[in-house]
Amino acid sequence: MDTQEGLQQELGIYVAGLLLYSYCMYGCVGAYKLACSYGIRGGSRSGVPYLIGVGIGFLFLSLFYKDRRRELIWKRKQKGSWKLVALCLLFLMGAQFVTMVWAEGVEALVQKAGISLAREREAASGANGTGTMMFYTLVVAPMIEEIVFRGYVLKGLKKYGNSSAIFISALLFGLYHANLIQMVFAFLMGLLLGYVAAEYSVHLTILLHMANNAMVSGMVLLGATKQTMLYGIEGLSFVLVLFLIVWNRRKIFCYIEASGGCNVRSSVRNLWMLLYVGMTVLVAWQGIMGG
């Protein structure tokens, strides 16, 4: 079996597991929202369905990936540093700026067709005040998502090259969010955390994911009065990150080549991946239309 065929088969296994996990998650959330529409108490913004959905989904996923556990997920390659953490947080702030520009552009485009992305933008910002949703956003989601995407998926695909594993896990992570606005940031974040997981550890990506979600929640709490200042900070972060990427471009290209290059075709020609994209499109469209 050649590398291309092996990657296709391995990718199919991981995407099939993610489909199962995602159906559990979105099924619980959809059922809860439907129940709320019939007057059941709890509120449509509660984090309860997300906690239940993630719990059930992760249980099934752990059984599905039973031969791909612990030793893959928690293996540490090297220790991180405060400099690394600072650079990662800078990158995440810059990615927020990219996402903001993307959101403004897409909003202006779809408004011509009479469609609003207000729901998508609100969901992407995590703007809600329920305690259960905050607990899910700040604690549960970072832990589970890192174990799933940077643990099971990325660590499982590393044998086909770090670059391919990082790209594919980031793509799946972006699609998983099923939100036209949020998936852009999630993809960029997935590239960063994928590198950190491949070269350092999943322990560190969990902490970085928690820190990012805390930063986003803090920005939302600051409200519109500090919006100009936040945009300025994000814009400056983007400029600094862009400068660092250009300055270190040779090192980046060398890393990609040294780790086997980035096999993009395998990720877009896989049947399970196409099914996953289809599910994402349906969920995202339902969110846009207010489902």
In short:
By secondary structure, the protein is mainly α.
User: What Rg, in angstroms, do the CA atoms define?
Assistant: 19 Å
Straight-line distance between termini: 44 Å
> Which ranges are low-confidence, i.e. pLDDT below 50, for 5 or more consecutive residues?
none
Percentage of residues in helical conformation? over 70%
Mean pLDDT: 84
- Sheet-strand content, in percent, reads under 5%
The domain tally reads 1
Class by alpha and beta content:
mainly alpha
Task: Please trace the helix and strand order, writing H or E for each element.
Answer: HHHHHHHHHHHH
Q: How many individual β-strands?
A: 0
List the helices and strands and how they pair.
Elements lengths: L2 H35 L10 H17 L17 H30 L6 H8 L5 H27 L4 H15 L5 H18 L2 H21 L4 H21 L1 H10 L5 H5 L2 H18 L3
Describe this entry's structure for a reader.
This protein is mainly alpha-helical and 291 residues long. The chain has one domain (10-288). The protein is built from 12 helices and no strands. The mean pLDDT is 84.
Task: Based on the model shown, name its key terms.
291 residues, mainly alpha, 77% helix
